């Protein structure tokens, strides 16, 4: 509506506010006001709810609204297909009581505006022709282009048409009766002469370049409503799916791989014109009719095909292809068993449709599949499976019961080629597709049921709610081995699984890796629930941990298995999941102790560092370093093999070591060797063992060497005699508990007690006057003989090199005798102080100088002053550069405690003794 006001003054007055005269009882209404009040009272009323209703007068010259109805079926609108079919059916409903035969055919045999039907005899055909024309004429429909495979029936139709009125005769005969041999029916070509269906494939010239638009246009030209050439048509459907997945535009050139496949397929499409499908399937009145359907699936598509099996009165069997349908697999990846189930659903729908059209009882339906999993799903109740499987199983069982389904091998399943695709050249040669499998042609069919049916993957998950109790379970404390605890839990879980699941697939035999991992996860969750229950409760509520919580810095989270793990910033790294997010383990837990003990065993009693490296690949144990070190110190095996044995505080040196005296007056003795020696050079002389007897001065640490041929007491006595003859009498002699020394001690006592001996007179006089006292150190205490052990250690450094330079470590007796004085010279000439950097204070103190000094003054007795100046001064020179660098025993270690377990080692034979001290 459009309105225009010309008076500007009137417009201004419209927006101005007029002065309202206050209402009063004395004031009278004006004529205008009184009229408004009357109109308001006449046109306005108020209902019970307080709403106002106003009646407005409408004055218009518009004519009254009329009602129109569509009396004809129009084409080109959305409702046209429905109206065309509904109009025919409505005519049959309204007038069908007068024409029962035609009314039944209208409701079942019409496809859009085409009637496709048949009759048993010629008389029935004529009757149907007449009733159909009269019935549809009631609704204003006129049937044209009648045709039949019976020439007699066509002649009767012509005669009936000629009997009509003059107006009907004027209609062209081509519109009334079709006499051509080739006729198109709903996209199919029917050859009336041999009563068969054929395909006419016409492919236009190939356009360059091939695009998605051109390929789909060429594919759409081919029409196969009943799926008789489905194995070849599915290839074109797969091509369309590939084109969409390629993501190319409509007019963009297709990829080379798709183009080559399309060109090969396009060239063979012409061969489909050679395929002939008989229209009549050989059914007579009284024959037994069965429908057998087959389904199969592959990763690319799934298909269903139906055959009609006719058994005549003589027992003959005829099999004919009825219908097939193929579908490509969804773009989203689905497992093969699920695609097989989709094929079974497609087959069920198809069989019900065909059985309804052919009026076949459902007891005559039989479905076949080569999937044992699908048969297992059909044999179980739908509520046992997951939603995807349960819905489809319910749909199948609502139409076909379980006893309608049987198993067929893949080689006898004709739907196999339809699910994989077959080029036209190969389809023509495939007799099983058009005639059905061989076993359908037999009089008796063996229906098989598979024995092994595994449906575990599609079993629905049973959800349950359980409460977690806080506190440590006593059962966990019963295990001292992680492996045993995990295996016990795994067996308990297996028992629960086998007792709860209603399936033939029981878990038997040895424990699998999956079962052991599940048991380990149960132990971890139990350990975390006992120690981190507050943190787990907060994380389940999506709450942040408090700032003072000791786990906050680890940014923990709960994974899908309800296990607490360490967060971090390594999500996009190439590390495995456990390295990126290790499992959190508490410090004080029996499970933690078992983990550390297992790591210690797995690393072959490795040290704390190795244990930490092993555990940190999967777990984040709080306080791991302290726990690993503590466990390592408590391991008996590791303590036995550890080199860090306790060293007690050494005792005071004996008086002979700290009292100045003549060289070799107080000595110690030990043996070195053995060496292989010969009595002479040359060939033919045998070698035997020899030893070196070391005499070490207790005061000057000078060394005297003697050669002995064996370890007997007599051999030592001979060496001792030579030592005394060379160095003078020896008042005190220390040694270890060697058998040769203990035997020599008793022999010396006997010699010293006797006045007659065969020793040299000078030695005999000294021994007779002073005697020689043998001292033995405690058993298994080599630290008491450190002085001669050091000399014994230095002997191989010089002498050993000389011996090793000789071939096969053999040396002659004379060479060994010559080597003794030379070694004595080198060992006694060993420096006790380093050369000073000051040219004036440079003075070297050696054991040889002490011996020579003693030889020069052998006739005089050393005084305290001489010792202080000569000997003690040399010792003072050693103090700063040498003695200050020697480690001292400044810390004491605990002694053996009563009722304690201790390990004693013997380094000579590598034996460990575990003992318990008592009172």
UniProtKB/TrEMBL annotation:
It comes from the Eukaryota. One of its GO terms (cellular component) is DNA polymerase complex. Residues 591-643 form the Integrase zinc-binding domain. SUPFAM superfamilies: DNA/RNA polymerases, Ribonuclease H-like. This is Integrase zinc-binding domain-containing protein. The keyword Phosphoprotein does not apply. GO terms for biological process: DNA biosynthetic process. The lineage of its organism: Eukaryota, Metazoa, Ecdysozoa, Arthropoda, Hexapoda. Keywords: Coiled coil. Residues 820-835 have a biased composition (Basic and acidic residues). Pfam families: Integrase_H2C2, Peptidase_A17. Residues 143-170 form a coiled coil. InterPro entries: DNA/RNA_pol_sf, Integrase_H2C2, Retrotrans_Pao, RNaseH-like_sf, RNaseH_sf. Residues 819-841 are annotated as: Disordered. The keyword Transcription regulation does not apply.
């Amino acid at each position: 509506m459009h309105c225009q006001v010309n008076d500007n003054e009137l417009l201004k007055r419209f927006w101005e506010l007029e002065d309202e005269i206050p209402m009063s009882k004395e004031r009278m209404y004006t004529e205008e006001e009184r009229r408004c009040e009357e109109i308001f009272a006449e046109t306005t009323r108020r209902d019970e709810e307080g709403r106002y209703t106003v009646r407005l007068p409408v004055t218009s010259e518009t004519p009254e609204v009329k009602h129109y109805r569509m009396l004809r079926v129009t084409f080109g609108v959305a409702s046209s297909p429905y109206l065309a079919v509904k109009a025919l059916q409505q005519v049959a409903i309204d007038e069908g009581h007068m024409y029962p035969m035609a009314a039944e055919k209208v409701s079942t045999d019409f496809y859009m505006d085409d009637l496709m039907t048949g009759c048993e005899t010629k008389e029935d055909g004529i009757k149907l022709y007449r009733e159909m024309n009269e019935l549809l004429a009631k609704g204003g429909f006129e049937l044209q282009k009648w045709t039949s495979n019976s020439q007699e029936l066509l002649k009767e139709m012509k005669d009936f048409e000629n009997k009509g009125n003059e107006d009907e005769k004027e209609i062209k005969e081509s519109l009334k009766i079709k006499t051509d041999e080739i006729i198109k029916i709903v996209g199919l070509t029917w050859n009336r002469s041999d009563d068969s269906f054929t395909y006419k494939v016409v492919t236009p010239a190939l356009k360059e370049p091939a695009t998605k638009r051109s390929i789909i246009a060429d594919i759409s030209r081919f029409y196969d409503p009943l799926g008789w050439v489905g194995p070849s048509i599915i290839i074109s459907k797969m091509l369309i799916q590939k084109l969409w997945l390629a993501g190319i535009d409509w007019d963009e050139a297709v990829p080379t791989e798709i183009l080559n496949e399309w060109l090969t397929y396009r060239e063979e499409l012409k061969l489909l014109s050679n395929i002939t499908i008989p229209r009549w399937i050989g059914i007579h009145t009284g024959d037994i009719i069965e429908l057998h359907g087959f389904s199969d699936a592959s990763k690319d598509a799934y298909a269903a095909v139906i055959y009609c099996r006719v058994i005549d009165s003589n027992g003959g069997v005829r099999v004919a292809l009825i219908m097939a349908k193929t579908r490509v697999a969804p773009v989203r990846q689905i497992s093969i068993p699920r695609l097989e189930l989709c094929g079974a659903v497609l087959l069920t729908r198809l069989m019900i449709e065909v059985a309804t059209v052919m009026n076949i009882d459902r007891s005559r339906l039989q479905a076949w599949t080569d999937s044992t999993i699908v048969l297992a799903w059909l044999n179980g109740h739908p509520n046992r499976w997951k939603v995807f499987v349960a819905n489809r199983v319910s749909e199948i069982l609502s139409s076909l019961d379980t006893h309608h389904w049987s198993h067929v091998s893949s080689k006898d399943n004709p739907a196999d080629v339809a699910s994989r695709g077959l080029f036209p050249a190969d389809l023509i040669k495939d007799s099983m597709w058009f005639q059905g499998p061989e076993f359908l042609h037999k009089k008796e069919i063996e229906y098989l049921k598979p024995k092994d049916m595994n449906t575990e993957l599609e079993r629905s998950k049973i959800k349950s709610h359980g409460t977690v109790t806080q506190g440590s379970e006593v059962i966990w404390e019963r295990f001292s081995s992680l492996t045993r605890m995990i295996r016990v839990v795994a067996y308990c879980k297996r028992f629960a699984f086998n007792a709860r699941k209603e399936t033939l697939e029981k878990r038997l035999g040895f424990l699998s890796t999956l079962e052991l991992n599940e048991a380990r996860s149960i132990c971890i969750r139990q350990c975390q629930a006992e120690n981190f229950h507050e943190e787990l409760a907060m994380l389940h509520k999506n709450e942040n941990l408090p700032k003072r919580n000791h786990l906050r810095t680890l940014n923990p989270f709960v994974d899908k298995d309800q296990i607490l793990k360490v967060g971090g910033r390594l999500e996009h790294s190439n590390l495995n999941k456990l390295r990126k997010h290790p499992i959190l383990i508490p410090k004080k837990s029996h499970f933690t102790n078992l983990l550390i003990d297992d790591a210690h065993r797995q690393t072959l009693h490795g040290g704390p560092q190795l244990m930490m490296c092993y555990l940190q690949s999967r777990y984040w144990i709080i306080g791991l370093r302290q726990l690993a070190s503590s466990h390592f110190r408590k391991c008996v095996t590791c303590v036995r093999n550890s080199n860090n044995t306790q060293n007690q505080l050494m005792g005071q040196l004996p008086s002979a070591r700290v009292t100045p005296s003549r060289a070799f007056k107080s000595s110690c003795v030990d043996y070195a060797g053995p060496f292989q020696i010969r009595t002479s050079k040359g060939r033919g002389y045998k070698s035997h063992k020899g030893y070196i007897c070391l005499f070490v001065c207790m005061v000057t640490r000078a060394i005297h060497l003697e050669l002995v041929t064996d370890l007997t007491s007599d051999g030592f006595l001979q060496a001792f005699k030579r030592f005394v003859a060379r160095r003078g009498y020896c008042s005190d002699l220390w040694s270890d508990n060697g058998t040769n020394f203990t035997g020599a001690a008793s022999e010396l006592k006997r010699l010293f007690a006797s006045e007659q001996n065969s020793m040299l007179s000078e030695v005999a006089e000294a021994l007779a006057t002073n005697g020689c006292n043998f001292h033995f150190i405690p058993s298994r205490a080599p630290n008491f003989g450190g002085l001669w052990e050091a000399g014994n250690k230095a002997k191989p450094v010089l002498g050993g090199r000389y011996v090793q330079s000789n071939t096969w470590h053999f040396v002659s007796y004379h060479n060994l005798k010559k080597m003794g004085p030379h070694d004595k010279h080198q060992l006694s000439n060993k420096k006790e102080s380093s050369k000073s950097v000051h040219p004036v204070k440079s003075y070297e103190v050696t054991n040889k100088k002490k011996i020579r000094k003693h030889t020069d003054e052998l006739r005089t007795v050393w005084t305290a002053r001489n010792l202080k100046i000569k000997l003690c001064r040399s010792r003072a020179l050693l103090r700063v550069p040498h003695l200050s660098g020697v480690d001292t025993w400044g810390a004491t270690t605990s002694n053996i405690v009563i009722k304690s377990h201790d390990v004693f080692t013997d380094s000579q034979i590598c034996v460990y003794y575990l003992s318990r001290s008592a009172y």
